[in-house]
Amino acid sequence: KISEGAGLILGVYYDEKDYLNHTICFTKAAALFNHNINGKLVEGLKMFGPLPKLGEVRTFTQLDPAYSLVTVVGLGDNNAGYNKREARDEAKENIRKAVGVACRVLQSHFVDKISEGAGLILGVYYDEKDYLNHTICFTKAAALFNHNINGKLVEGLKMFGPLPKLGEVRTFTQLDPAYSLVTVVGLGDNNAGYNKREARDEAKENIRKAVGVACRVLQSHFVDK
Questions:
Q1: Signal sequence: where (predicted)?
Q2: Tell me: the pLDDT tens digits for 110-157?
Q3: Residue 1 maps to a domain
Q4: Mean pLDDT of the chain
């Protein structure tokens, strides 16, 4: 289980001809990632055997030290077009489905920071006392991100007003040129503990719920480069 890690979602298209010709059709983000890690993504996928079809995933834990978990999801046919009968763009519909599956995989691992192509999910805890004292309790990943962009995340949240409570989100489009969309989601009380009556870890349950909401926000924006 990963509680304070970073997860990456990347897409790969599936075409029987490409597979038979030993070629892999990545999204731009996946191709760049593979290049940056010297082809290790291709090597890892080949070890799995067949490429993932639409909605299938392949997960890796040691491809890049920057990410605790890398999930490659199948996006189906790269040549999927417009379905006149259903009045639907099949390519975008495939991306919706695939990203939803991949997000649930990361969600199940409690990844609090998810980079999806060019979208980022970060968590912030909510405590009435902290808010009244003008302090913000970030996850480690969110605190590091805020530090790297010189406090712009804090500034952006303050412009919104109240901090997001459990499951509420705040979205930003111009915080960091590396991400087209940054979604900050409320994780609830940082001191949430074990609920004996329900036999449930409330902190982990809160993270599950919050990440699920944030994933749907990214999914609706088709964030995949």
A1: none
A2: 656 666 555 788 889 987 666 666 678 898 888 888 998 999 999 999
A3: no
A4: 80
Q: Among 74, 94, 112, identify where a domain stops.
A: 112
Taking the CA atoms of 23, 26, 31 and 37 in sequence, report the sign of the dihedral they define.
negative
What residue type is assigned to position 126 of the chain? Y
67 and 127 housed in the same domain = no
| Count of Cβ atoms closer than 10 Å to residue 73 Cβ | 28
* Distance of alpha carbon 201 from alpha carbon 206, whole angstroms: 9
CB atoms inside a 10 Å sphere around CB 74: 22
Supply angle C-alpha 55, 124, 143, rounded to 5: 100
Same domain? 130 vs 75 = no
170: left (phi over 0), alpha (psi -120 to 50) or beta: beta
pTM for the complete prediction? 0.57
**Secondary element (H or E) of residue 197:** none
Contact between 11 and 26 under an 8 Å Cβ cutoff? The reply is yes
Domain match, 97 and 125 both:
no
Whether 98 and 174 share a structural domain: no
